[in-house]
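Model the whole thing, not chain by chain.
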Amino acid sequence: MTDVLHVINPATEELLEEVPVDDGEAIAQKVSRSRSAQASWRDRPFAERAACVRAFRDLLVEHQDELAATLTAETGKPIRQSLNELKGTPARIDFFIDHVPQVVEPRIMYQDPANALPGTAALEEVLSYDPLGAIANISAWNYPYFVGTNVFVAALLTGNTVLYKPSEFATLTGLAIAALMKEAGVPEDVFTPVIGGGVAGAALLNQPLDGVFFTGSYATGMKIAGAAAQQLTRVQLELGGKDPVYVCEDVDVETVAPAIADGAFYNNGQSCCAVERIYVHSNCYEAVVDKFLATVQALKLGDPTDPKTDLGPLSRRPQIDVLQRQVQDAVDKGATLRCGGHPVDRPGWYFAPTVLTEVTHAMAVMQEESFGPIIGIQRVSSDEEAIALMNDTPYGLTASVYCGDRQRATRILQQVRSGTAYWNCCDRVSPYLPWTGRGHSGYGSTLSIDGIRSFVQPRAWHLRTV
Ligand code: NAD
């Protein structure tokens, strides 16, 4: 009997759909077909591959309302934010279409004319880039369009075939993406969905692959790296974070506190680059906390299909227990619970937005990724103390400093281990810059020129005339 995935609406706990899961045999066949299809996809002119990807981009725009509704139904993401994600995706695709050719086109690195020395042949040394081959993209549910296209669009444009395993919590979105790829003219074996949860992901990794691109948690990332090592498959890991913000004493509290609250609570805090820890200089601590609390308490929690809703349900029920444990641990160790701290008494997996002050690094809320609507705010008395605390984490995804002086901010940020550094902003991503982590946040890059190079390997040509 075929296994099925039960797709549940986190806002209502109703069953949305039962989707058949791929078993090991089906996955093996998909990988085999993907490998066979790769050479002809690679050999198509770039303009043809780009035309398919552009058609996919246009279909995303055409269907954005229904795609956003599906994303909201299966993840609980507020509809306004689902639409924001869909509206933000085409610009990323355009970046890749515009930049792949200039990154991968062959270039002459060195030349000797014939008879440079009497009787010598002409020599050219050329650098070119080949696609990796058939790659697996094992993806997360929190931003399936952003984190998905960062990988599979760049991979397709550079001539790879893709086995795309959406998260089991964004399966309907994954299937919609696959259907639009097909409609856009991407051959079925060039972009292949693999449906299922961790078991399907693990079965995919047992197959011969030329690259594994993973977005997800540190715990799963460790398993992925271990499995990929068995075949020495190239692997890239985009993992979690415990991203800090430091607020200096010279900021405009009225604008900064709401901006940080948005960074902490957007998508219910379920962003890899969500603000997860806040350090505030003691000279503005009370003012920042007051404005921050006022902002959080004004957030509208409710039905994610309502365009006015700021906070929907959590996408996964087990996260409620994680958050409750973090709150209890913090309170037990002396933190002050300023708001929230409990599930909301209504159907669905809702958790009240939670702010804790007087927190310390002895508390899990300042150490472990929360991935939910909860934040700790800690008072600091100097930049040096802030730097030490910001670095007191195995993660290294983003870090942010709010202050009036760019030199001071960059001096601080240079001393913090992170892939991304923000001055007077947070929780933002640009296609022009690499998205990359350090430590437990993973390795490798997507987006930017570096993120295109992730999907190719260099080839060195030594070309003599005779
Ligand atoms: P997850 O690790 O639970 O799952 C990610 C994917 O891995 C899913 O598709 C899942 O089915 C698959 N999987 C699970 N076990 C597997 C196994 N043993 N072998 C192969 N595949 C397996 O993560 P999630 O809950 O989907 O996403 C949340 C996490 O992702 C957070 O930690 C978040 O910070 C991180 N994230 C990071 C980025 C980034 O760019 N750095 C972006 C988005 C999310």
